[in-house]
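Tokens for chain A. Residues wanted.
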């Protein structure tokens, strides 16, 4: 019988979490039927037998739903590839959850570092809310490792941390101009070096925006923060002489910093919502948010993580009504997923908050641009 493996032995084989670009590509697919299977799993070198059977059961549920619709060619274009992907996933390693996406033109398995609600979704688009939630929970970030004479810039996604591509980093104090090199041990020399590092950091963040974690001694980071022009998305700091620390030592130190940053971002989104409500620039409830997302200029969608809403959409595409018959092809299995994608498509952003945080807004609210 397979058993979960230790973190050290698992990391070499653990599947990588989806990147923002991969999520964007999945969200862009619109082709009925788009089948999504989502299931929590136990991190292991191979999917546990009971969980493999459970995943096959979800595939059979999707099979039965599509069989009842008698769609042409659905067995060859969707169902056969679905069962093939499920069998492949059942033989491979697992993380906290697995997501299987299949349509006539798309076949994709993704692995998430968060637990999900086990479910089958058959809609015109894929169920990507958990992908968005995973990106929020383990956002892409950068870590600047700083000492008086060296700076390294690492890019992180989930528990993976690696040097950024390109020649800008690492930077050494000896790379500066000759007159700056002579005084590298002095306060003036350090500030010159830190300004050089900050310019390179700003160039990178302009092209690759992301939350920033600073790593270094308290004195080094205080000097750098005093002059940096690129701290608008500073998530926090890790203190210590860690310029040569391996990624395995850095990730457990960085993780709580990111978690605290995300909690603060949740409060920021709730504060923004209160401001927009006072200014008359927000709507509450799924039906109002759905209509406003398509007719107005969405700014921020705030939604509770555990909120699901099966619904029908009228012919205009603007009116939403609740539905209980999830198996019917006219029913959106989860209108919240569709709403998230609509807001992102129209240039808004999404804040996923804890269940209960929006009790005064019927679990979902949308702020609007002027």
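Reply:
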């Amino acid at each position: 019988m397979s058993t979960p493996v230790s973190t050290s032995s698992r990391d070499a084989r653990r599947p990588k979490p989806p990147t923002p670009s991969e999520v964007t590509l999945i969200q862009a697919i619109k082709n009925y039927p788009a089948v999504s299977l989502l299931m929590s799993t136990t991190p292991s070198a191979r999917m546990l037998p009971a969980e493999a059977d459970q995943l096959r059961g979800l595939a059979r549920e999707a099979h039965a739903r599509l069989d009842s619709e008698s769609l042409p060619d659905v067995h060859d274009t969707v169902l056969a590839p679905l069962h093939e992907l499920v069998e492949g996933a059942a033989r491979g390693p697992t993380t906290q959850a697995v997501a299987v996406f299949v349509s006539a033109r798309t076949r994709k398995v993704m692995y998430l570092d968060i637990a999900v609600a086990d479910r089958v979704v058959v809609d015109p688009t894929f169920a990507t809310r958990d992908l968005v939630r995973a990106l929020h929970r383990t956002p892409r970030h950068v870590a600047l490792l700083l000492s008086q004479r060296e700076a390294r810039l690492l890019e992180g996604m989930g528990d993976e941390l690696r040097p950024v591509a390109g020649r800008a980093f690492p930077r050494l104090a000896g790379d500066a101009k000759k007159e700056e090199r002579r005084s590298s041990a002095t306060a003036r020399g350090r500030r010159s070096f830190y300004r050089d590092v900050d310019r390179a950091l700003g160039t990178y963040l302009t092209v690759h925006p992301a939350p920033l974690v600073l790593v270094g001694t308290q004195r080094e980071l205080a000097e750098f923060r005093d002059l940096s022009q690129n701290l608008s998305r500073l998530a926090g700091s890790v203190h210590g002489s860690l310029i040569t620390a391996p990624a395995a030592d850095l990730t457990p130190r960085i993780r709580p910093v990111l978690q605290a940053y995300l909690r603060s971002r949740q409060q920021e989104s709730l504060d923004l919502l209160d401001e927009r409500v006072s200014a008359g620039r927000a709507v509450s409830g799924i039906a109002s948010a759905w209509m406003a997302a398509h007719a107005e200029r969405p700014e921020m969608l705030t939604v509770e993580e555990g909120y699901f809403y099966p619904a029908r959409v009228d012919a205009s595409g603007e009116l939403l009504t609740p539905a209980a018959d999830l198996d019917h092809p006219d029913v959106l299995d989860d209108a919240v997923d569709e709403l998230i994608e609509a807001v992102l498509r129209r240039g808004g952003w999404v804040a996923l908050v804890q269940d209960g945080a929006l009790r005064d807004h019927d679990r979902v609210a949308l702020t609007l641009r002027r």
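The first strand starts at residue 34 and ends at 40. The CA atoms of residues 294 and 318 lie 7 Å apart.
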